[in-house]
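Q: Structure tokens for this one, please.
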Amino acid sequence: MGREPVNWSSERVALLFGGLGSEAAVSRNGRASVTKAMQQLGIKPIEIDIKDGLVESLINSRPTRVFNLVHGRPGEDGVLQGLLCALGIPFTGSGVASSALAFDKPRTKQVWESLGLPTAPMVVVNDLEQSDICIKRLGPELFVKPAHEGSSVGAHVVRGSDQLKIALEDALRYDTRVLVEPLLPGPEFTVGVVRGLALPVIGIHSTTDFYDYDAKYKSTDTKYQIPSGLSPEFETEAQKLALEAFEALGCRTWGRVDFMLDETGHLLLIECNTVPGMGGHSLVPKAASASGMDMPMLIEQILIDAEVSP
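A: Here is the predicted structure, written as tokens:
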């Protein structure tokens, strides 16, 4: 994958995690596995929970690189990336602009649509009075989620106008804008991306209405299928589409692109995650392992590309 080998024992690597956002617990859950992998590379990570004096900690610890493991706000929306740019500290993952774009789900879909990439139709709402428009345009069975959240926080499956109003009210607690899409039959698939390589496709089979927070992080009933169950041709198509979707947003180094199947069996792009999870249930480590890449190798590939990226 290019680039000269790095003497990791001479690097001061800060691992940023946690925070105060809705996904802080998910980030903390992934910290231990990333720390262990870094130690296997000869790195003694400087662990910083960003809720505790982040700027002071960065200035005092003088890291040569930052591994960003902060999910949601401010780790994926461009804010943390902007701070690290201002401090001149190389960091992992996407830059300021691409992070902000990928974190905004409606604008992500608009970019994909403009390039002819397949994604479901949508309505973006900012108040409860717009519920009738959603049903008129998209039908009574819908999927509702905040425009700027991850880990399925504030997301709902909706069947009918009464459920829609309840779902919108909840989603608007998390964001001023809410994305509404038609409910797709699925199943869901995901493709990890690492330095220009599309990892094996994972099929996700949840026992709940959709792949929600509990199914992602708590349930032992969620099944992950590797190989995905798709035909080899379809799997290749999904990997190609994932790379196109990732690059269309200007994303860098690593991430994850999610899909659903529509009623005709075609793949539709759902969203792009620029700081995927690294915990025990997380998908990118599973896919990397299936491709022969263990956790230290995965962490090294991500760290190698750390740079100051606006």
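A few notes: The longest strand covers residues 254-261. Residues 138 and 182 are 6 Å apart (CA to CA).
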